[in-house]
From TrEMBL:
Oxidoreductase as UniProt keyword: yes
GO MF annotation: an example: oxidoreductase activity
Highest taxon listed in the record's lineage: Bacteria
Pfam family, one: DAO
FAD dependent oxidoreductase domain: residues covered: 39-392
InterPro entries: FAD-dep_OxRdtase (IPR006076), FAD/NAD-bd_sf (IPR036188)
SUPFAM superfamilies on file: FAD/NAD(P)-binding domain (SSF51905)
Protein name: NAD(P)/FAD-dependent oxidoreductase
EC number of this enzyme: 1.-.-.-
Organism: Pseudomonas zhanjiangensis
Length: 437
């Protein structure tokens, strides 16, 4: 079946996707014009910026937020919509820097991050199809052994949600595929409509007094005790600055830009399925994700489409036909969907750091400039944690979480922006070859 192609639109609109087509708010904020003063200027209108703005506004700060396109235009409004516990990958690697207790605190914050989303949705009554239930999928027996260790560790951390290991013969309870050899159910993780969450958070921020500006690309930043942030038509003067652009930072700040690699991730959405078809695919309406380096992640939308995502491109160029690229991956999991129509196809950039831990801290030499980026695939929850930690730090409540993240060093990718992608692609190929061993 051929895909129905949804052409990209001008960046003053949201990137074409199922989420843009099914958004339940249509918000428009003006571009910045003239000069404005604020306690804090935030660059980036995704989850990082929006949640930092909410945290600061709740503490009485005046905040101006600048977004180059539309609120939620980047990864925040285009991702797979999976809300999964945890931040970082293999956080034990940071024990020499932050100690055993520091590693434990990172793991606890990975659980707290999901609860922040839960509380945000409840506090502001955000309609974003938040649904609880997630399952890690084992591609080989060693993955299932790892899940057993994860379960024991989570229980030791006091995790309050149901966890259940699934043996091969039980996998039909969560997925209509014979591809997996086990799994682990986690009822404290789940899925949601990410663009509707971002738009709901924008409305919440505005209700708290945050001034939001769209189509306001930052062209220059003058650093100093007072930061001056320039756009084509205006300037924000602020005592504090937050850079929350992640994979879309570009050359706005080369120091931070060198520590994050934009990588393409892609999603397709089928036509709406019947209730019976949807139940056969994902009987408990969970989010699901496998354990491969080039992972598959998928779930059902509120109108019973299968949203199937994955892959990772480091070339900076999207596949010419995303549906043609992703459909074979979907059919390996669900071969019986060969005649199902693909209604939407889209992609976007996620930010990856060399050590896979979110980068949250202050800019060296500029103590009034804060940043959060490089969520490496855990962005829905980790961005909300970053907003909380940045809000605390700017309010003078730094300590604990913020200082812990800020202590971890982050490597600049070698070779500048033109060699970063090929080098990481080689590294990922090595990891994929290890999977086959």
């Amino acid at each position: 079946m051929n895909a129905r192609v949804h052409q990209p639109v001008h960046s003053t609109q949201h990137a074409a996707s199922y989420y843009a087509a099914s958004s339940n708010r249509h918000l428009d904020y003006p571009p910045l014009r003239g000069e404005l003063r604020a306690d804090v200027c935030i660059v980036g209108g995704g989850f990082s910026g929006l949640n930092t703005a909410i945290e600061l506004a709740q503490r009485g700060f005046s905040v101006a937020l600048l977004e180059a396109h539309k609120i939620g235009w980047g990864a925040s409004g285009r991702n797979g919509g999976q809300l999964i516990r945890g931040v970082g990958h293999g956080v034990e690697q940071f024990e020499p820097v932050i100690g055993v207790e520091g590693v434990r605190q990172l793991k606890l914050m990975g659980l707290e991050a999901v609860e922040i989303v839960r509380r945000r949705v409840e506090q502001f009554a955000i309609d974003c199809d938040l649904t609880w239930g997630y399952c890690d999928l084992a591609n080989k027996p060693s993955h299932l052994e790892g899940f057993a260790a994860d379960k024991a560790e989570l229980e030791g951390l006091g995790y309050r949600h149901q966890l259940r290991l699934l043996q091969p013969q039980q996998m039909h309870e969560v997925v209509g595929s014979s591809r997996y050899v086990g799994g682990m159910i986690d009822m404290g993780s789940g899925h949601l409509h990410p663009l509707n969450l971002a738009l709901g958070e924008a409305a919440a921020a505005q209700s708290l007094g945050v001034q939001l500006f769209e189509n306001s690309t930052v062209t220059r930043i003058d650093y100093g005790s007072e930061v001056k942030v320039h756009t084509a038509q205006g300037i924000v003067r602020a005592a504090q600055l937050v850079l929350g652009c992640n994979a879309y930072l570009g050359q706005l700040n080369p120091t931070l830009g060198g520590k994050v690699l934009p990588a393409g991730s892609y999603v397709i959405a089928t036509e709406p399925l019947s209730a019976a078809e949807a139940k056969a695919l994902i009987p408990q309406n969970m989010a699901l994700c496998d354990q491969r380096v080039a992972l598959d992640y998928y779930r059902l939308s509120a109108d019973r489409r299968l949203l199937f995502g994955g892959a990772c491109h480091y070339s900076g160029r999207d596949p010419a036909d995303i549906a043609g690229y992703m459909r074979p991956k979907m059919l390996k999991v669900f071969p019986h969907l060969k005649d199902v129509r693909i209604d939407y196809q889209w992609g976007g950039m996620i930010g990856i750091g060399a050590n896979r831990l979110p980068q949250i801290g202050r800019l060296k030499g500029q103590e009034n400039v804060y940043f959060a980026q490089a969520y490496s695939g855990h962005g829905v929850n980790a961005t909300h944690l970053a907003g909380k930690l940045l809000g605390e730090a700017i309010a003078g409540q730094a300590g604990g979480g913020f200082d812990l993240f800020a202590r971890v060093p982050h490597m600049t990718f070698p070779g500048g922006r033109y060699l970063r992608s090929p080098l990481l692609a080689l590294g990922m190929l090595w990891h994929r070859l290890k999977e086959l061993a």
